[in-house]
Each structure stands twice: as structure tokens, then as C-alpha cells.
């Protein structure tokens, strides 16, 4: 049985495709400019159907996915996009039971995806120095019922993470290259490192610093999501798309004395224009 | 403590960047043309370091990620790429405790990613009609220690899935549009549907059929992964990349009588060349 | 000497980066909400500098490129983007002296690029059945001083092109597959064929029809233009980009009896996911 | 009439899709491991048809396009790809009668495209310091019958170009930022500047230097060409594609005292992840 229950998050979609998240509670009411929706009309009923406000406006009621939760996050800065969050979760090998450290928390979008992946036995330790952001992230995680799997810490990581032997470490900071010693200290030997950066200049700085700090298997990647208009007889990409969310950088922490031997070497075969230098 | 133990999977990387997966066992030996490696040299020791064969050849020993496991899969057909698998896991809302049905299993690459996401409490029910493929998938899942979370079923799904009220359903079949009634019957109301298809013609067929079968929130997307050479002072994309792995199609199963109202409507604003029809 | 002269087109860019095209004439005046600019202040002077209205507002005065002309085109429908126009010119082998037939003209954006390429000795024969569009295209070409190299014809091409032995033929029509006999009749043996189409369904139809009509060397391509923010210390792609302008289809007209032997054959090596069918 | 004549270049395609360029001459013979082809069997005949060697092997005979000529270039280094060459021609506003300076010539691929665009009245002045490269470029341009429109100069440009008041300048050098004074001196006021660079680091250096040297309207772009398998009933992108040919940089030379006012300013609206800095 999968009927909606008190405490569940529900995604409501209006007929002009606006999306809203509500948490069901007995005798709760959701007020909208299209009328009022009683939570008790949803509780105990299946989702995946149209519900109507008392003045007849339709909403499609659905269970929200992690993808929806990230997109509906309350935010003051930009968030990590779901396509990137999903890929980071896999690249950092986050699965039930794992322990991950993260800085900074931001609005908590990636934290949410990480928590969903490592729950119930794992933990996300997330650091954020701005109290306003930390507060926002806490509310976002609470709304998603994931706060139990996250420890939020209101400070920067200059003095280091509290954790050791973490399985993975993700740095979403402007200058992650300044915190690689801290990342290493928190990670278990061979642990997974990741970062996301908006500019190529930052990627260059981080890659250089990772090599100096004994990280290997350094990989830089971008994910481009191209949406299509879902029209069977006129299938085509949408007119516009997001061109850039961030460069993703991944690496593994290895014994410092071993790192030099495993540096990246350019294969140099089949090189196009300009690769000759 | 995170030292390697008997039973662990270990990724070994040679100095020409070839990658091998072994499962540690007491007194085990790994024979390679570069010499012999004793498992007992790894057991009880930290990973993230260089190990050497008895004739001195170095290998980097690392814990494999889900990403690595998918890439190292034994396969007879092509597999779903990690970037797509990670995104499918999130779009289908697969997290610990969820129940997912899948057809066909293929080599088990997506099955592996789904199992990692829904374990320990959830289950993947995966159907594959070719005995040879099913066998391969079983061995791949066993090697990844994920078989406990998967029920493999050796038949096609023409007669339907055994499961009901599943949270999500993924069809990796040549003609998924023929099995949408079965998908609906297996899914809970509002459940998550996904598919991957190589050709645009198939996408058109599937989108049309999804609309006829009461699926809404249909989305068609592609993920392009662009790798960079990780060289700080000469940052640039690699020379070549994978241009196409598959079109991803997602949808939600809703009450059939409600579906028509929630069909995709083309916004038609800011449309480029040719959209006038 | 390359000072601006009466009759020249000049691109004026305001300090909020709006772009305007004017044609210089003695005693001409350009009225803008930022004041008045006298053409005689530009005539006889070099371009590439700031000019000011009589109330002091600055404009950057530049020679417009073909790229600028296409972007500044007066249009009622969407135009072919400069990136596509440039590539079509090269793929159709349009250079000085060549003869090209085109249908339909639309706003004349591609016509303009083709005319620039084949002038002075070549000609573009461009067909458009909508009088309103033909008129617009004529004014656009006149403004660009390219009308001398174009013959505009106000009819559809169902009854065929007037021309024979043309070097190239481009069809920018909704159903180009209906006019391939006409295209063949206009082209010289081995002539260059091109088309641009917004949807994958149309591409499938056109590819099938091209094979039936004795076209070979069929190629389907897309060009994606990714712009970057030109900031030296923070280099990164722009936030959004155009995701789709059109699928480009190119082919060569060969002797009908020879065509079957030169059909596309799928190489089938190194095939990813799903290519097995 | 468009039959092949002595002196024409002809593209021959074998049935395993290998491509060869030959120049027709009376009594000429083309020897291949598939037999001998007499030029006189082609001269005076239409192209766009199958021709056979004396032992019966078929070749498709076609007129080569500029695109084909670039792809068939004899080269020792990588060449500028046709998609980029076509776009550069348009961005630099190269059309019949224009004067363009270029350094370095390399194998002459872009030179060829520029010459085709500015002929018959225009000229390309192309500088190359390596005698071996210059020689190769000369032979490539001669084979394409374009040498009449090009002046090849065997020296580097440290001491400047010989030309002044050029319409456009293209630098295909490893460190183009060292030659911007020379580029300015060669260009007319407002002239068009372009460059292609493989790495992001180089782009940063060039953008900074362009601003210092009074260039404005700086644009950085990439063109990605995505090819499809031209199969009507199974339309899909190819498995792999070229991921990177080069970053394209364009700018305009303006009066130095005016340049600062027209610098790029980041619009900062709708910015994604990370753009906050």
C-alpha cells in the first residue's frame, strides 16, 4: 500500500505547470490563489491523480523525487544541479552506510542528495560558515525529512574537519585548493575527493594543488543536459539549455610518497589542432 | 578503521593505466603477466597506496566505486554508462528501502547501480529472458556483493511483472512501448517510469505510447559527458568523447482518467528556426 | 584607405550593448532616444572608434560583418543562425562564381550569406511563395547591398526550379522530401544538396527520400555553439546557450543507376549501448 | 555544362569509403592497388557517377568541396577543422575582394578556406617561419588551384606584418598574445581579429592581452559538431565525436583611447552555481 500519509511530502503541479511542495498533516490546509486544498483530501488516498481546490482548480499530486526536492529547494545562492548531484553521489561512492564530509553546505542541495544516498546508517558532515546559509540548509533538509542523517556544523574548515577516516570529501568552495590538507586529514587512505568549480582558472589551480597534495586519478569532467520537447511527431531538443553548471573535479587521496608515480600522463595519440605543444 | 579485509573488492591499476578488479581472500593469489600479487599483502593494510608484484611491478590499490564497478563489468552487450545510471537512480527516486522493477537486466550494470541505491531494505526485481545474459548479470552482481538486494527473473515481461505497487520501473528494451500496460500494472499510483533508447525513432514511439497509457510528466533528455585533460597549465577537453549513449525518457504513471489534462503543451515562446510548424 | 563612405553600412553599438545598422548618406541623420547622430560625422572618417550624439551619448561605430548582418536582419520568422549559414556555405561549396538555388527564401538570412560567398560572378536563385516574406527578404538584401547577386522568385517550387546545372541546392522547407525531384532537375550531376530541419522526424523522412531519389554521401550533423564569458581571470561558458537551431542534412546528387552502390553502411564498430539492433 | 575538364580536381571514393583527390590531365593515369584509372575516361564526362578501374573496381567520382579539400589536405600538424574554418571566414568578414593577414600558415587549411572566400580580387597574406611547413602549404594551395590568391611569406611576425589596413587578421600561434601590437599595426581601424587556441589557459592570456591592446567586442566561442548516422528508421548520433578542436577568440581593433569604455561587462543575471564570485 502506498497511499499518502500524514508527514509525507507531496508535489502539487498546477495546470500552468508551477510546482509546489507541501507536507501533509491532519487538518492541514494549503492556501493558494487558486483556492484552498485540505490535506485530509490527500491523506489515505493514492497519489498520481488530480486533486481540486474547493473552488475547483486542479492540481496533479505526485510523490516528489530527490530530483524534485533539489529543484524545489529554497535557496539564496545557486544550487548544484540534480544531474551533477547524481553523478557526484556515484563518483564519491556514496551508498547506504558511508560517511561523507562536505564544505560548504550552501542551501543544502548536494547535502540532500548525499543524505538520501548514505541513509540510514551513513552520515553527512556538512560545514558552512555563514549562519544564514546554515539555517536555510537546515530547514531544507528538515522539510525533506533528511536531517537525521546530516550533522551541520557552523564554521569554516580552515582548522580542519572534526572527522577522520571519512569515505569521501566534497568541497564546494571558491578556493578549494586552500583546504586540501584538511581534506586529506579527514579522508581515509584512498578516500574519494570531489569539487565543483565555475571557472577554468579555478580548475587549473585545483588540479595543480591536488597533485602537490598527493591526490591521484584526477579527473575533470562536465555534464551537459540536453532536454527535448516530448512531442512524438515533432521530436527535437528544446530551444535553449543550461550551457554550464560547473566543472567537476574528482581525485583519490593516496599515500603521499606513492603519488608522484601515478600522475596523469598525456597519451598524445590522435591529437587534434594545437595539441602539439 | 578502513583497512582492506578478506571479501573486499579491490581495484588495481597498472602503470599503463589498465584496471583490474579482484576480491581479496586469505592466501589468495593474483597472477598477472607482470608477476604475482599475494592477497595477504593487501589484507589488513590500508588501500590508497602502491603494491608490488613479487617481481617488483607496481599497482595502485584502491577501493572501487560504483562507477568503477560499472566500467569493469563483464559484458557481452553494451552497458548503460555510469553518468546515465547515476541520473536514472535519482530520476526514479531510488533510495534505501525502495522497490524497483527492471527489464531487461542485460549485463546488470544499471541493476548494480539500482541495488547500491536501494540497499539494504529495498529490492530490485530484474527480468531478463536470455539465460546467458541472466547468468552474466548474476556473476557481475555477485562479484559486486549486491546479489542479496536483487531478484533476477529469467523470463520476458510479456505476461507482466510479478510485482505490484513498485516505486519505479525501468525498461531497457528495444520496444518498450509494447510493455507499458505491464509497467503500469507493476507501478504504484504515481510511480516513476524510465527508459533508455538509442534512436530518435524509438523515442517518438515511446512518447506516443506513454501518452496513450496514462503517463504524464514525460521528459526526454540526453546527458553528454565531456572529459578534460587534467593538466593545470594546459587545461582543455580531451580530443574525442562519447557522442551518444542513449536518449533518456522519464514519466509518471497517473490515473488514466486524469492523464489527458496533464499532457505536455509546447510553450512556444522564444522559438528558433523551424519551430513555426 | 578604409574610411567610411556614403553608401556604407555601419554598425552602431550603444553603451548598453544594443546594436543598430545604418547606411551612411550625405546629410543623413540617425535619430535615437539618446540623441541625434549626423552621418557626416562618420563619412570620411575611420571606423573602429566612439562617436557621440549631439547630446553626448557614445556609440561604437564598426563595419558590420556578414555575421552581424544576419543577426540584425529584420525577420518575421526565425532565421538560420550564422554558425549554420557559414557551415552550409562551405558544405555546398559556394565560392565566387557559383550558382545556387534556394527555397524558401524566408527573411533572406541564408540568401545573404550565399550571395556574399558567390559574388561577384555567381548567382543565388531564391524561391519564396509568400509575397510578404519575399518583400522582407528583398529589403534585407538591398540593405546589405547584395541584391545584385540574387534573383528572387515569388512562387513555390512544386513545378520546379527555372535553373539547370546549378552547383548547389538548399531547401529550407517544412517538407523538403516532396521536392527532391525538382532539386535533382536543377542540380548538375554530382551537385551539392543541403537542408535544415528542426525535428528528428523530418530528418528521417528526408534521409529516406534522398536515398530513393539517388542522392548519396548523405550526412546529418548538428552544430552547437557554446559561448564563453570573455573574462581572463574567470573564464567560463555562459550560463545558457541555444540548444538547437536545426539538424543539417547534406548529400550529393549522383546518377540514379549508380546510387544504390554508394548507400550508407553502418560501420558497427565500437558501438555503445543499444546500437545492437 | 559542367563536365569534368583537364585541370579539374576530382574526389574519388572507393567502395570502402576511402577518399582520394586527383587533378585531371590528358593521358594521365591514376594507379591504385585496385587497378588503374585513365583520366581521359573522366575528362569531358559528367561527375556524380561511378567510374571503374581497368580491372573493374568502382570509384564514385565527385567534385570536391572546400570542406573535402581541407579534409584531404596533406598535413604534418593538425589542421583547423572545416566547421571552424567556415565560421572563422564569416566572423572575419572574408568575402570577395577582402585582404586578410594570417600567421602561421601551418599546412594551409585555413589559408585555403580564406583564399576561396576572398578570391578573385582579394588576397591572403600568410606568414610561416618553418620552411618545411611553408612548402607543404604551398603544395596544398597549388593542388587546390588557390595559390594565385595567397602570398606566402617565410618568416615569423615578430618584426611585424608587411601589410597595413588589412580587413582581418588571424593568429594561429601558440602565444598569439605576444603579437597583438603587430596585429593592430596590420589591421585597418575597426578591423577583424581572430585566433584559435587549444587550452583554456591560453584563452585567458589572450583575452587579457586583447584588452590591454585596445581590442573590444571580444568573444570566446566553441563549435561542437555532432554527426548522426544517416539511417532513416534508426536516426541517432554517432557513437563518438571530436570533443574539442579549439577555442575560437574574436575581437575588433578600435582606437586605443576608446577601448576602455567598451570592455566586456558581465550581465550577472540568471547566473547558475558558482557565478556568485
SSE blueprint and pairings:
The structure is a homotetramer of 277-residue chains.
Chain A: E1 9-14, E2 19-23, E3 29-32, E4 35-38, E5 49-52, E6 58-62, H1 66-71, H2 82-91, E7 99-103, H3 109-118, E8 123-127, H4 131-143, E9 150-153, E10 166-171, H5 180-186, E11 187-197, H6 200-212, E12 215-229, E13 236-237, E14 240-242, E15 247-253, H7 256-259
Summarize it.
The structure is a homotetramer of 277-residue chains. With 277 residues, chain A is α/β, with parallel strands linked by helices.
Structure explained in plain terms:
Four copies of one chain form a homotetramer. The relative contact order of chain A is 0.10. Chain A is built from seven helices and 15 strands. In chain A, helix 3 (109-118) links the parallel strand 7 and strand 8 (123-127). In chain A, helix 2 crosses helix 3 (109-118). Chain A has two domains: 9-64, Vcp-like ATPase, Chain A, domain 2 (Roll); 67-262, Vaccinia Virus protein VP39 (Rossmann fold, 3-Layer(aba) Sandwich), CATH 3.40.50.150. Chain A is 23% helix and 31% strand. The first copy, chain A, has helices spanning 66-71, 82-91, 109-118, 131-143, 180-186, 200-212, 256-259, and strands at 9-14, 19-23, 29-32, 35-38, 49-52, 58-62, 99-103, 123-127, 150-153, 166-171, 187-197, 215-229, 236-237, 240-242, 247-253. Chain A is of the alpha/beta class. The longest helix of chain A is centred in the middle third of the chain and has 13 residues, at 131-143. An eight-stranded mixed β-sheet of chain A has the order 9-8-7-10-11-15-12-13, with helices on both faces. The first copy, chain A, has a four-stranded antiparallel β-sheet with strand order 2-1-6-5, with no helix packed on it. A two-stranded antiparallel sheet of chain A has the order 3-4. Mean pLDDT of chain A is 93; it is low at 269-277. Chains in contact: A-B, A-C, A-D, B-C, B-D, C-D. Chains C and D meet through strand 6, helix 2, helix 3, strand 11 and helix 6 of C and strand 6, helix 2, helix 3, strand 11 and helix 6 of D.
Amino acid at each position: 500500500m502506498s497511499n499518502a500519509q500524514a508527514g509525507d511530502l507531496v508535489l502539487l503541479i498546477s495546470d500552468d505547470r508551477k510546482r509546489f511542495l507541501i507536507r501533509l498533516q491532519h487538518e492541514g490546509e494549503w492556501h493558494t490563489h487558486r483556492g484552498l486544498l485540505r490535506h485530509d483530501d490527500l491523506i489515505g488516498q493514492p497519489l498520481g491523480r488530480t486533486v481540486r481546490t474547493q473552488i475547483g482548480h486542479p492540481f496533479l499530486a505526485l510523490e516528489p523525487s530527490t530530483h524534485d526536492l533539489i529543484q524545489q529547494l529554497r535557496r539564496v545562492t545557486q544550487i548544484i544541479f540534480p544531474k551533477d548531484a547524481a553523478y557526484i553521489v556515484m563518483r564519491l561512492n556514496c551508498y547506504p552506510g558511508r560517511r561523507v564530509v562536505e564544505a560548504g553546505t550552501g542551501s543544502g542541495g548536494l547535502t540532500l542528495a548525499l543524505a538520501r544516498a548514505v541513509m540510514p546508517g551513513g552520515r553527512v558532515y556538512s560545514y558552512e560558515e555563514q549562519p544564514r546559509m546554515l539555517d536555510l540548509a537546515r530547514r531544507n533538509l528538515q522539510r525533506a525529512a533528511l536531517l537525521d542523517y546530516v550533522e551541520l556544523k557552523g564554521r569554516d574548515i580552515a582548522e580542519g574537519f572534526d572527522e577522520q577516516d571519512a569515505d569521501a570529501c566534497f568541497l564546494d568552495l571558491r578556493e578549494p585548493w586552500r583546504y586540501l590538507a584538511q581534506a586529506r586529514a579527514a579522508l581515509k587512505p584512498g578516500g574519494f575527493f570531489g569539487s565543483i568549480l565555475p571557472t577554468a582558472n579555478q580548475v587549473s589551480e585545483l588540479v595543480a594543488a591536488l597533485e602537490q597534495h598527493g591526490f591521484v586519478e584526477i579527473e575533470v569532467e562536465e555534464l551537459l543536459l540536453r532536454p527535448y520537447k516530448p512531442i512524438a511527431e515533432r521530436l527535437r531538443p528544446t530551444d535553449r539549455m543550461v550551457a554550464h553548471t560547473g566543472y567537476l573535479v574528482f581525485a583519490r587521496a593516496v599515500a603521499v610518497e606513492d603519488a608522484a608515480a601515478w600522475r596523469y600522463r598525456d597519451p598524445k595519440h590522435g591529437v587534434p589542432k594545437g595539441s602539439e605543444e
